[in-house]
Specification:
Layout lengths: L1 H18 L2 E8 L4 E8 L3 E8 L6 E4 L4 E6 L3 E6 L2 H12 L11 E4 L13
Antiparallel strand pairs: 1-6, 1-7, 2-3, 3-4, 5-6
Length: 123
Amino acid sequence: MDSVSTQKTLLGNCFLGITTEYSISLQIKGVGFKSKLSLRQGERFKSVLKLSLGYSHILRFSMPKGCTVELIGKRELLFKGICYQGITQLVAFIQNFKAPDVYKGKGLNYQYKIKVLKPGKKQ
């Protein structure tokens, strides 16, 4: 009985996504953290997201089918797509590259999520 209601909810989300596209925004916070979007030529044109997140190398991520990304400046990423579950899984996967720091707030953060930071050392 539970799986039927889950399937009904997922199907309803897909129909809603066709009429109004879902979007989730991520902000990049931190000195030297940048993002860049480029097109890769292969079978078809595919967008590749390049992230510089303080590692010794640049992270490259090819966008899956049905999902698009837009850059708003170098510090904000806007993910769009029809399937709500697919978009949230994609954003969670990308956020795991650099999870938000609990003390300074550096990393990849959801734009509209309120983050409560822990206090540092007391002297």
